[in-house]
Fold this sequence. Notes:
The protein contains eight helices and seven strands. It is α+β, with helices and mostly antiparallel strands and 213 residues long.
Amino acid sequence: MKNHKYNLLLFTLYSVFLAACAGTENTDTGTNTTTAETQIMEDNSGSQAAMNPDTDMSSEDTTRANVSADNTIGRDMNIVALVQQNPNLSTFFELIKQADMVVTLESPAPYTVFAPTNEAFEALPAGTVEALKQTDDKIELRRLIQAHILPNRIASTEMRDNMPMKTAQGDNVIVRKKGQTLTVGNATVVIADVTASNGIVHVIDRVLVPPKK
Length: 213
């Protein structure tokens, strides 16, 4: 009888030991599985991001759509991109394209561009812009665009009162400075020093019409 009780006690203790071991193994397995699954999820997340460039490009496009003159992202754009992204410069952008001068203003050479607003073009005599867009003779249109371009980079801080600047069209345009007001020819600079990768843009409120030849 004593031997029977002793054997029963040993069996019970052995069963408890086996149960404890099994619990420990399950716990470890569960922990290891969770860690492995976490690593796989992290790796998959990175792989999906790498294989889905639309996500990053969308974020970049959203940022660029709201870029301002003092934003460093804006400084990574060339002059044409800066003009194109501003809805109030859409007429100037259309004329740049019509004049076949996009490649020129995308080139790495440094330029200064005085970009007239849409309102500036609207102030021209009726039909002027439409005629410029529709003509097959692009000489006059190119002269008009070149009258807004300097073949070097000049910031507003480098401009002096009564300073002549030669445009790409070949004529001089005179700078006037009175206090905080900066004028170029008959136009007032409304936004100065928009930095581009290949130069600088100053937004003006009037069109710089070259003299007739």
